[in-house]
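Model it.
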Amino acid sequence: MQELEGFDRSTRRVRDLEVAVLDSRPDASPSTPVFVLVHGLGVSSLYFRPFAQRLAERARVVALDLPGFGHTDAPDRALRIPGFAHSVVDVVSQLGLEAPILVGHSMGCQVVVEALALEPQLARAAVLMGPVVRPEDRRPVTVVRRFLKAASAETPASAWLSVAAFLRCGPRWFVEIFPAMTDYRIEERIGDVSVPVTLVAGERDALAPAGWLELLRERAGGPATSHVVPGAAHQVMVSHADEAVRLCTTAGARP
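Modeled.
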C-alpha cells in the first residue's frame, strides 16, 4: 500500500483504540500553520494524496485514519458521527495543536462539523469539501445512486484511490457505518459551528451540488463562503489538488 511520502506515522490512544496519525512536520514550531485532514466513508488518509503532499509544502499537515479505516482498527461496535468526532478532538488535543484548520471530505465534513459543534475552540477555521448528505438523498438507494453518478465523473486515478482504500477497510465496516452518514443532519448541526467555514465542491459533484453548498453557507453559525471548482467531481482534492490547496491556504490566511 502506498503511503504519504515524507510524513511520519504514529498512533494515539483514543478511547481504547490506537488511532493512526500521519504528520508532515511533527517538530514544527507553534507558529507554523496546521491543517488536520479528515477523510470520508470507506477510505483513509491515503485518499488525500497528492493534495496532502502539496499542502505540506506550505504548512504542517496532520492526517488521521478514523476508527475502522486505513491503519486504525475498528472498535467493537459501529460508531456514529459523534464517535468519530471525538477521535478528531482527542488527536488534536494529544498533539497539542494550536488553532488548526480542520479539512473534511464527504463524510469527513460531518465529522469536522460535529467536532466543532462539540468543541467550538478546537480550530480557527474549517474547510468542507464535498459535504454530504442532502435531505432528499438520505434513502440508501438514493445516496448510492448519487455516489455512483459522482464516481462516473472521476478520473481513473481518483477512482483507483477509492477502490484501494475501500478494499483495505472492507465491505462489512463500510455497511455498518453507512447509516451513520445518511442519518446525520449536517444542515442543522452546522449552525452550531461559529468559526469561519469554506465550502467546496466540484461542478460535477452529484452529491454536493451548488445549491446544497449555498444552503449550508446560509445555515452556518459563523462566516461562510462557498466555491464550485470547474471540471471537478466529488473527489475535488484528488483531481484538482492545486485548487484545493489554494482554497485551504486562503482559508488559513484569514484572521
